[in-house]
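User: Now give one protein:

AI:
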Amino acid sequence: MNGPEARGGTTVRDALRGWGGVTAMAVVCALVALVALCLPLTTATTATQNTTATQTARTKAAEECEAPEKQTLSPSSADGDTIRAIKNRTGEKRKLIVGVDQNSYRWGYRNPNSGKTAELEGFDIDLVHRIAKDILGDPDAVQFKAIPTDQRIPAIQDGRVDMVVRTMTINCDRIEDVAFSAPYFKTGQQVLAPKSSPVKGYDDTLADRRICTAAGSTAFAALEADREDGKLPASTDISTTVPNQLDCLVRLQLGEVDAVVTDGALAASQAAQDPTVQLKGDAFTAEYYGVAMKKDADDLVRRVNQILVDYRKDTSNGWQASYEKWLSATLGKDAKKSEPPAPQYLRTT
């Protein structure tokens, strides 16, 4: 059937044929327009205005990016389209899909001593379980996907994961591609080298040295920019990049590189794995880890931010407890230096 028909096979168009039909058609159109105008549009209009305000705030923030860790949405426990879609998954698929690391000791790694399954453990993994518990009511309702450093953003954009919790630094370039939660950890770039190495830190002792970084990492971006600006010796070889940060430690152990540059929090864990290496010098940047999600997943971003507020307030099974369990042995008992400042949020109205 090509269109609506009247009884006996007569179409509406036939019934309205002629000048009388034109008049009738005009009346019908006027009535349709009037009905449309009378429909309740408050909710739709408000939602559109809120979305537009958020997009405008994000665009302005990205253009004027100075403190990317402050460019996130205010907390909320409300369910939106993204969260409802997660909750509507059925059976075994009703899980939060999260991109993580499985090679970063004490952050996200498979403990060979945890049984046949070698379950993922670490500081990031604790946070994932907390998010799953809040959204789905079950801390184990998670499908973990191990992804390399340079695949974190593509995995989010392609919809392979709902979020990435993988020691991911919030920076100005990345907020153009994904949305971040408020910071959940503070760290900075540092140099890792053999204890016997003449390398003393991020300084001239890196001249003629081979440095390893993870592809797509903030470490590589910092080295590239600093060498161009003359802050890093021109003879420093930064060509060695690997998919996963732990691969740099292997290259260092094999003598293929002279030093590793990575987040101090990760470097400390690697030094704990290999007593022949150590951190050299102080951190030369200040960076913050955040949970990364799709740009348009506003409800999920707000929900994660609310979870982080509650997680930091929880004195028995929250941020502090997780730090003491996983990181105090490598970063020290004073968690304050690693705890991010009170979050600040985008003003969208």
Q: What stands out?
A: The radius of gyration is 27 Å. Residues 105 and 273 are 8 Å apart (CA to CA). Residues 1-44 have pLDDT under 50 and may be disordered. The first helix runs from residue 12 to 15.
